[in-house]
Amino acid sequence: MKAEIIAVGSEMLTPFRQDTNSLYLTDKLNQIGVTVAFKSIVGDRRKDLVSAIRTALGRVDILLIMGGLGPTEDDLTREAVAEALSLTLRRDGALVAALHARAASWRIAMPQNNLKQADVIEGATILPNANGSAPGQWLDVAYEGYRKLIALVPGPPSECKPLFDTECLPRLKAVLPPRFIAKRTLRAAMIPESQADKLLAPIYTQYTDVETTILAHAGDIQLHLICGKPTLEAAQARVDELASRMEEALDDWLYSSQGDSLEQIVLYYLGMHQLTLAVAESCTGGLLAQRITAVPGASRSFLGGVVVYSDPLKTTFAGVPPDLIAQYGAVSAPVAEAMASGIRQRTGATLGVGITGIAGPTGGTEGKPVGLVYIAISDPHKTDVLERTFRGDRTRVREWATQQALDLVRKRLM
Asked: Do the Cβ atoms of 292 and 277 come closer than 8 Å?
């Protein structure tokens, strides 16, 4: 069974508001074996909404429409659904009475435009909304010869989520055949997306019953595997079989087979070996420490760090000799090494990481271009440094640098 989610509201087509309900609804639908094939956002224009509804009904079995159920002129979901299905609207007397009672409980006069919230599509079941004045509606109809299930739910998350859970989910479970979805997420670090797909496509294309999605961002590859079967055991077995083959192909690029973040894995290894970590950051400005400390319990292994942006602070807090900076420059392998070993010694950590580079967009030269980063890792026995040049804007260079640093720590701990 395939579903589509339509979020209604012109405000979500601006830079200031986004749809979050669909993430929640997608998870709930997946739990009962329904795949969300399409999502769309439609502004408060009746013609556009009617068109979107008809398109959705032509390609999916289940349609969820969020928003547009309020009392204002631009709340047009009821009217658009009725038009798309060639049905009429009726004003429900019980809903009208409930609206008047609600207004009376607040000791206010009810505006007449509120009455449109009592309009019900012909043949629809009213879905009570315990958290708002706009009820939802449920339709089980034939459209072009096929059965379609349609739910209209309010847009505010505080109304949408509980109404979907209490009113829509039970109805879906009652009519849908048993089907279960199993998921796995594999994650790999610092392998180019094209190279990952070259390795993995010959494998995952053999599993036509498993949906494989590859997502890439700043040195992190996520591989999402989803499979639906009549039993959860069958679906999980299929996903696990594919995951096992992909793990083998990825070799040491793979850092998680259950969706954990790279910082979670680093902290896991640190804890397992009873080791500690401290960092000295320049161009990343504390981003590495922020990623690590975002993980609950990080304090068991992460001692802390310093942001040593200026040359004097590299000396004061990370112990970098001034003549080293004078000879090689602040952005150099020797300085990165000195930062890593210096912060390790000053904090008493087992491992130290030093990062220095040119994040841009200015500051680069022919010999040291924007994106050049040196990352060093130090333990009591040795200090290694890696030189990388990352492409992209300032944010992207910093993200790549921290990803590379975490991966170096992971590999050292392995």
From this structure: yes
Structure tokens at 231: 């039993």
Q: 372 and 272 share a domain?
A: yes
Does 373 share its domain with 317?
Answer: yes
Quick one: tokens of 137?
């509606």
Reference 203, options 251, 247, 254, 255; nearest CA is 247
> Facing residues of 182 across strands?
227
Integer CA distances (angstroms), 165 to 150, 159, 173, 382, in order: 15, 10, 11, 56
Strand ranges, E, within 252-394: 254-256, 277-281, 302-307, 351-357, 372-378, 383-389
| pLDDT per position as a tens digit, 296-323 | 999 999 999 999 999 999 999 999 999 9
Whole-angstrom distance, CA of residue 168 vs CA of residue 39: 18
List the one residue out of 261, 62, 46, 70 whose CA is nearest residue 177.
62
Please name which of 183, 169, 186 lies closest in space to residue 232, comparing C-alpha atoms.
183
Tokens describing residue 265: 């894995």
- 6 and 39 co-located in one domain: yes
The backbone torsions φ and ψ at residue 339, rounded to the nearest 5 degrees and listed phi first, read: -65, -45
Which pLDDT value is given to residue 1?
82
User: How many CA atoms lie less than 13 Å away from 152 in the CB half-sphere?
Assistant: 31
Residues 235 and 358 in one domain: no
* 220 and 203 within one domain: yes
Q: Given the structure tokens 């072009």, which residue do they identify?
A: 144
Q: Is the peptide bond before 380 cis (omega within 30 degrees of 0)?
A: no
Closest Cα to residue 189, out of 214, 218, 219, 222?
219
* Structural domain boundaries, residue 216: 190-256
Element (H, E) at 246: helix 232-250
Number of domains in the chain: 3
Asked if 72 contacts 146 with a C-beta cutoff of 8 angstroms, the reply is: no
Enter the pTM of the model: 0.80
Residue 274: which residues within 8 A CB-CB, separation 6 or more?
Answer: none
Residue ranges of the chain whose pLDDT lies below 70: none
Two tokens, residue 15: 């830079």
Are residue 127 and residue 37 in the same domain, yes or no? yes
